[in-house]
Records
---
Amino acid sequence: MFAFIYLTFSTGFNQFIEQEEQKHVDAVKQQLIELYSQSNSWQPIEQNTLLWRSIVEQNVEPGVEKDPSLNGGGESAKDRQAKGKQDSPSPAFLWINLPPGSLKTGQRISLYDVNKQVIVGRAHLSDSPQVESILLNNNVIGWIGFAPSRLVESSPAKAFLTAQFYSYFMITLCVMLVAFIVAIVLSRHLMKPIRQIVAGTNALKKGDFSNRIPPLTQDELGTLSMNVNELAQTLEENQQMRAQWVSDTSHELKTPLTVLRSHLLAVQDGVFVPDEKRIALLIKQVDNLNHIVDDLTQLAHSDTAVFTYNLEHVDIINVFKSSLDDFSMRFEQQGLVVHSQSLQKAGQCIIKGDKDRLQQLFLNLLENACKYTNKGGQLNIEVNKTASDIELTLQDSAPSVSPEDQEKLFERFYRVEKSRNRALGGSGLGLALCKQIVDAHKGDIYLQDSPLGGLAVQMRFPVLEK
């Protein structure tokens, strides 16, 4: 910028000076022509040095007046020069208001006669860098030699350019220093959140998921810091869930294994007799283990997208009826009264789903209702159909579940120990499987209080357009 500005300025300033000096030379030529036309010779100038100075210099020294006859009784050459400046303003540097004679142009003008002999100024015409002829009625009456300001070492214009060069150079150094200081401050300001983000990601890489990055800015770096914090929180929660998963899995498997080991050791020591009742107990514990392993396998398959679904057009009402028929004997043994009139009147309802998975869903829910409802209780089944979806609701009687526990029942291995305890044989994976199946069918499943005093399970599935 310094080089560009200075080159632009010096070029424009030199053009401006040349224009001003050319105006000065033209004005001098005009006055010399008027003077020569009166005396038909250059003798007045040869005999009067002050006259020459009054012509070539714009400011007349005190006490020296110009001959009015030089101007033909009209306006002076100086007035015409000033008028010419007003009529033809310089295209650039109009803000510069040069005082008359400040360029000392008159000191660099020489006058020669028609034979190129010096009258005033340099001894030889060839010594002048710029030569112009003086014409009167298209006849050469003399010559003017002129040395432009840019070619003179001690000229005011060149001195002015030199002073401007040093001024611009100092300004450039100051600007560079300020820019350097601002760059350091700004880089530190920008690097501080970046260093924090790098430190935070390094902590995540080392497994420290509790580390958080304090957002220092409201820009993109602040957004990135918040995203890294959310990632750290997610990883921390996943780590805790993984640890809880391993702990719950080992605990669930340990219970039937402990029972199996204690009974087998008792049989080995002769404490228990391996009769039919004892063997049936051991088989029941093996079945519990097998049930837990099957649930874990299905959930693992669902998490890794291996849990396949054969989607087709399925009448969900018929699937529910079939599952309900399979549990009719269990309900009688438990003494539960099932109200399914709404299901019987629902008619056909086609959705896109997997019949086997839907049946698994309904069997799990009916198993929970049968297992966790007090004897002599009730089970109410409600069906609500709209043009876009179907809603199935299972409402059982006491015991109920608190709202806090309802939010956690879809978590794996979670059970309400007081009313739905491990003694009933549950693994705590049934509702987690149910949610996986409902989500795979693009449906929703909710838990809420039942009007019968127990728990209500509400499912909604999108239906196919007729």
Note: Residues 156-205 form the longest helix (50 residues).
---
Amino acid sequence: MRTIDWVNGAVEIIDQTALPGELRVLRLHTVGELIAAIQSLAVRGAPALGVAGAFGVALAARVHQDDPAALAVAVQKIESARPTAVNLARGAQRAARLLPLGPDAVLAEACAVRDDEVAASHAMATRGADLVTELCGDRPRLLTHCNTGGLAAVVLGTALGVVGELHRRDRLAGVIASETRPLLQGARLTSWELTRWGIEHRVAVDSAGPFLMARGEVDAVILGADRICANGDVINKIGSYAHALGARRAGIPFLVVAPESTVDLDTAAGTEVEIEDRGAAEVTAHGDAVNPAFDITPHDLVTAIVTDRRVIRLDRGETTA
């Protein structure tokens, strides 16, 4: 199944808030419904958000084609529905460039965004699996964070796509999926996808990751990104920075897998990125809480970045430019 697609005049998504208990498909007919799905994390993951942004503009073009002011407002709302991941705004902007040509042209471009992400997932899986084998040898044990499978993309995924390709080659020993607090995308979504793929795995609390690395139970950390800055700083789900520190201490590779659409050369460093705060309610009902949704992993802790077009070896001084 595709995580997100255009079907008979509406956007269809797998509702990720219902997993793993229920595989539920939502049909979204309006921009408001799409934005609500994005903000509730019914659809999430950088590549999937890029597609959602493009399809959102396609929805807006159909409703507001005779009202340019309302159309501009709708596009702006889509772009800013979640501020940290760059793909959402980029997908919306790419589709919006076709607005002067009419709704059909916008939809065709949105579908092209979807198709590009599908192709990117397959390219990243191959390139990433080759790199993991080069760095770690045969049958490595990998630690993942958050969810980077088909649920975060359209099909296959980013970092978890690499895991799947290693499994297909019979060159994977096992996976540790960190729970990924507070919404448990690792324990709920990654574990669900790995089970469907028949991949042996264990779930660990986030804070256990660095200790498991130190104890020699992990050969590499592999995760995705919501934005990669010009200097190589990686913006990803909260907890990624701690895994990067653990990997550096343990002397194992820390690998980031994300499409070129996530590389943001207009943002110099992670300190320039607005980090979304999800609010206290997701963490506790007893007092105040701080709940940043993402963190910043400095580029000097990253071994390599794998995209659909290249491998950037930051440990060798290569850059994203």
Note: The two ends are 35 Å apart (CA to CA).
